[in-house]
Amino acid sequence: MHRIPLKAGRFLLSDPFLPDPNFNRTAVYLTAYDASGAVGFVVNRPTNLTLSDILPEFTGLTHRLFYGGPVEQNTLHFIHSCPQFSLDSKQIQPGVFWGGDLEAIALGIRNEIVGENQIRFFIGYSGWSAGQLDDELTEHAWFVSKAEIECIFHDHPELLWKTVLAKMGTDFAVLGNSPPDLRFN
Question: pTM to 2 decimals?
Fold first, then answer.
């Protein structure tokens, strides 16, 4: 089986039987990976909250928030595919940026320059200390996949984990179709 190298701009797809409820059937978009650790955001778990629910100054902005991960859930992060707003952003891969000027992004949303399929807002993030993610990969807790822009900003995020697994080949598609509880197999 071909192994895709781990680096920022990849998806981490949880093994369907990973016992950690924070990452059950998740697709994590990796935004940083180096010797000091890794950071990413769960891109397939939307919440019932919107941007204006947590930031009253952004009244009317109904972009929904995603659960980014179990770390620092009192923080807001965003990734986007809007190069015109990339000045204060970190480029993760061509066409995908992390962070930036929230006020400028909000204005872009209000003026309908930034669509919901171009940006994701996250509460919290997923983080790993030095070597931790590598150990989890050795334990087969995650599968690594290339992250295509249309998948990062997928119209139906609840289908993303299964969709990306299917793109990885038949063996992975079978895993994506496995029932959440094997007793129901």
Answer: 0.91
Say how far apart CA 141 and CA 165 lie, in whole Å. Answer: 14
**Residue 139 in tokens:** 């334990």
Distances (CA, A) of 62 to 85, 127, 145: 19, 27, 30
Query: What totals of helices (H) and strands (E) does the chain contain, helices first?
Result: 6, 10
Find, among 61, 55, 46, the residue nearest to 109 by Cα.
Answer: 61
Rg, Å, the chain Cα set: 16
pLDDT the model gives residue 40: 98
Give tens-digit pLDDT for 119-129. Answer: 999 999 999 99
What sign does the CA torsion over 13, 142, 28, 44 have? positive
H helices of the chain, where?
51-54, 102-110, 132-138, 149-152, 160-167, 170-176
What are the domain boundaries of the chain? 10-176
Tell the CATH topology of 10-176.
VC0467-like (3.40.1740)
In angstroms, what CA-CA distances link 159 with 20, 31, 46, 86, 153? Answer: 20, 21, 12, 28, 12
DSSP readout, 125-139? EEEEETTHHHHHHHT
| CA neighbor of 93 nearest in space, from 103, 84, 106, 80 | 80
